[in-house]
Design the sequence.
DNA sequence: GTTCCGGGGGAAACCGGTTACTGAGGTGTT
DNA sequence: AACACCTCAGTAACCGGTTTCCCCCGGAAC
């Protein structure tokens, strides 16, 4: 018994098995399944019968190689566990399947090496596009290497999309869909400053991380626009996790830093910081004001509800795939490298109080 | 100029392009890249040179069809946005890539139709396994249909894995990796009862949802074990979102339900409920005690920190892929349908207080 | 100087599909 | 009755790889 088994439904059957069972050629089976080519009614039913009997499904890889496959799209993120990443991932996935694409996903845990490797895999998969979600370390080598894979992808007719990550060097064949990271931070910090605060503790991320950098820039710019020089002592590095916020806050309290407000780089960080503040017996916003960034769903369930910056993360993800796919369609003329910048807005809740100064300082 | 361009790096080149450029046959290129077959040093360098010049990467689909591809594994979840789903997804993804598999992902937003369609797509992709993550509506038709796709997958040498979802009818060729949903709820509820509470409001999920059912069973069983008959009025349906918790809690308060503690079906629901309680001026746990389920990272940042049930979600995801893949390996002998049940434990924080009754009730 | 051996590489078959080309058979027109 | 035309199905080439089979050629052994 060869592997060309004609058993009823048992095992992976090929189009030839179906053809044999229906007493026709493989081409005919393909045509019946494919749709448009004229096939007589009796043949069609015989073929469909065989297909059903064998529970046949055409091999998608073979179809793909023949040029009629479901297109695929790869996307990479740091860690699906982060709420804002999850939101973007959701947007990407929803829009991709809406447009009939499959999603290959990979998380890197911040490992640039791994990211590059995955992109290479996507190139091998002939993915229609690769979407890089979330910030990254921004070293010159990194930009150069990412630029190179962007070139490789472009040469293969694919496309690299940066989603929520700043552009590479100009000229790199990438599409960029990001939000106004710095502007959001600026507006948020301005809000805190407008309530009278002057010593605002900034709980940041990794110094080389682009998202952290953008938010810190906004923090600094808002200060300077008000004519207050931010104290460098008040800027703490960390990462974007809840635990980092908790630890940083505790340490700040222990070493006796002086501040009346805290601006956390993310809502997660803010959540950890809030817990540390509570544990220290400090009231928010009575004693200390606190703001976050991202407006994750949970932000409003913290106590007090967290004032933060809303970022249209899911929309960002959707736009990333739409951009990638549209680019692929109209490639011909002079497909300029798109760069979309979505707006953010601060959502004021209950976590920042007005600071009444005894005198006009 | 035909499409067989031999340009330097520009565009998708085939193995034949590389062969032509290196002045060898396609077979030789394949052998150089493949590894083991003896190839002379000079030929090897010539081929590698051509590969580099053309920036050639073998088409993964073609390799797959020839039987030497990177295996793929599909996984389906309700909504990546839910923290516990995200945790499982992370586990699945990490373990899959650790074992050298690619991940095709799809979220269904609870649409069973869509779930079935995706599984069919995975069958066409010849996925090594398909992992269904999270609960589902448990109707007889659903079990029957899922059983059928499980059969189809099994016939194709693939495998369906249910992760965090109860088994199908016995005999269905599926692997199950779940946690003790009911047991966790039982322990949690027992804890609340042990602090003196007798009227515990249960904020549940959709009645047909298996996860919701399991937790409710635990709630009921704990009551009965204590000899207290739970008041049906205290069981509210909803879904597993924060908003649902908020709304249900408000409504419960408005209609004047009497209770001294709240057991939310998930931490998300608990978070919404907590905010509603705060807004109503009720202290937790002073006036009302509150517990959740899932132990999502945020649970400890609520105020008060939430007592809840810890579920090893990430481990669950990892185990799901390991189970699936091991099954595929040892298929021969008498690959019994595995069923793993992971334990949970309640983590006591600050959200439930002791109820002092005026007299022994 | 033959024969034998084995290393290295090419031709061709194969994986599982699609599709351009070809041709058989039936119908309609003059 | 002859011819054109249309419908439908089969043959074969192709997609981009891998692998089997076979041959050629150089060196060692006799």
Sequence:
């Amino acid at each position: 018994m060869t592997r060309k088994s004609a058993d009823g439904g048992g095992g992976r059957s090929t189009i030839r098995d179906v053809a044999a069972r229906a007493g026709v050629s493989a081409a005919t089976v393909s045509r019946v399944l494919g749709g448009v080519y004229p096939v007589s009614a009796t043949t069609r039913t015989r073929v469909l019968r065989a297909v059903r009997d064998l529970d046949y499904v055409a091999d998608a890889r073979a179809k793909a190689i023949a040029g009629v496959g479901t297109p695929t799209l790869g996307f990479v993120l740091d860690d699906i566990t982060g709420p804002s990443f999850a939101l973007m991932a959701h947007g990407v996935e929803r829009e991709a399947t809406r447009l009939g694409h499959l999603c290959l996903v990979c998380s890197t845990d911040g490992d640039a090496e791994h990211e590059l490797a995955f992109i290479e895999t996507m190139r091998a998969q002939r993915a229609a596009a690769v979407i890089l979600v979330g910030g990254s370390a921004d070293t010159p080598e990194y930009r150069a290497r990412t630029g190179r894979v962007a070139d490789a992808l472009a040469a293969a007719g694919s496309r690299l999309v940066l989603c929520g990550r700043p552009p590479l060097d100009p000229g790199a064949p990438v599409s960029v869909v990001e939000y106004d990271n710095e502007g959001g931070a600026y507006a948020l910090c301005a809000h805190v400053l407008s309530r009278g605060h002057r010593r605002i503790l900034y709980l940041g991320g990794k110094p080389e991380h682009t998202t952290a950098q953008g938010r810190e820039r906004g923090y600094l710019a808002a200060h300077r626009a008000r004519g207050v020089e931010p104290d460098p002592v008040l800027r703490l590095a960390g990462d974007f996790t809840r635990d980092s916020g908790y630890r940083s806050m505790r340490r700040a309290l222990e070493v006796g830093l002086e501040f009346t407000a805290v601006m956390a780089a993310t809502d997660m960080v803010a959540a950890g910081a809030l817990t540390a503040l509570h544990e220290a017996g400090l009231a928010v916003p009575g004693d200390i004001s606190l703001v976050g960034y991202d407006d994750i769903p949970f932000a409003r369930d913290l106590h007090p509800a967290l004032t933060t910056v809303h970022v249209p993360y899911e929309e960002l993800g959707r736009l990333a795939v739409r951009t990638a796919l549209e680019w692929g369609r109209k490639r011909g003329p002079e497909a300029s490298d798109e760069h979309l910048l979505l707006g953010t807005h601060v959502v004021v809740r209950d976590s920042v109080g007005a600071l009444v100064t005894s005198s006009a300082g």
Notes: Chain A has three domains: 15-65, 72-179+313-343, 181-311. Residues 24-28, 31, 37-40, 43, 62, 64-67 of chain A lie near DNA strand D (CB under 10 Å from a C1').
